[in-house]
Amino acid sequence: MSEGSEAIEADGAPLFLLDEVPEGDVVTVDGAEGRHAVDVLRLAAGERVRVSDGRGLLVEGSVLTAGSGALQVQVTARHEVPAPQPQFLLVQALPKGDRGPLAVDLATELGVDRIVPWTAARCVTRWREDRVEKGLAKWRSAARAASKQARRPRVPEVTEPMTTRQVIGLLADVDLTLVLHEQAREPFARVEVPATGSVAVVVGPEGGLTDGEVVAFRAAGARSVRLGAEVLRTSTAGAAALAALSARTRWA
């Protein structure tokens, strides 16, 4: 069995996420992941699979046995996959309905590392105290499912919801913050993006950003940019920006 910390390319082998990946030459995938592997994917002995803890540990192997809602995986390699550079942070205003999990799903597939649910002034949706946990559970579930789809061994963190003041405090440690705004004069394509460090993208709600929010972000060092002539939905704007960022950094 080989070990290493080099970057690993994604491939067609399915990825299963466990809270903890045990040591040893054989790993058991059971619970919901095991049932999915056996009952839905119908994996059989000899097929290649990957197992991760969602925090960078990646185990490669092949199925020894499959049945009774569990896989036994023969481990052939273990890797500690480093965090990609630069790190991407998405500040996502709470959208209506199921558009929140959709925004998380798309952002995860396109490389986001941390997602902040933002209670912007014009958000139609409000997570009351008795609904915060339910809302977070949906967003975190979407991030986990999208990580498996994208074969990502690192599941993005979804933080507790934040106010504008809290978001601005968080952005103090970010190297570059881009606020997507349809009235901005600076094109996104002209922004110089660092190859390392951290980049944040701020996406407003359906009703748009208030003048006060724009001023507050600018005072904190953020840059207002426009992606293009089109005005995107709040659920897709973040993903579009992340794809553009990845094309200029991680995918280059």
Give the structural class.
Answer: alpha/beta
**Span of the ends, CA to CA:** 31 Å
The CATH homologous superfamily of the largest domain corresponds to SPOUT methyltransferase, trefoil knot domain
Helix content: 25-40%
User: What profile does the largest beta sheet have?
Assistant: 7 strands, parallel
Query: How would you write the strand order of the largest sheet?
Result: 9-8-7-12-10-13-11
CATH overall fold name of the largest domain: Alpha/beta knot
Number of helices: 6
According to DSSP, the number of beta strands is 13
Order of helices and strands: EEEHEEEEHEHEHEEEHEH
What is the general shape? Answer: elongated
Average pLDDT rating: 93
CATH class label of the largest domain: Alpha Beta
Describe the structure.
- This protein is an alpha/beta fold and 252 residues long.
- It folds into 2 domains: 15-80, Hypothetical PUA domain-like, domain 1 (Ribosomal Protein L25, Chain P); 87-248, Alpha/beta knot (3-Layer(aba) Sandwich).
- The chain is built from 6 helices and 13 strands.
- Strand 7, helix 2 (99-109) and strand 8 (114-118) form a beta-alpha-beta unit.
- The radius of gyration is 20 Å and the shape is elongated.
- The two termini are 31 Å apart.
- The model has no long low-confidence stretch (mean pLDDT 93).
Strand-helix topology:
Elements: E1 2-4, E2 15-17, E3 26-29, H1 31-40, E4 48-52, E5 57-67, E6 70-80, E7 87-93, H2 99-109, E8 114-118, H3 132-149, E9 157-158, H4 164-170, E10 176-180, E11 186-187, E12 198-203, H5 211-219, E13 223-226, H6 234-248
Parallel strand pairs: 1-6, 2-4, 7-8, 7-12, 8-9, 10-12, 10-13, 11-13
Antiparallel strand pairs: 3-6, 4-5, 5-6
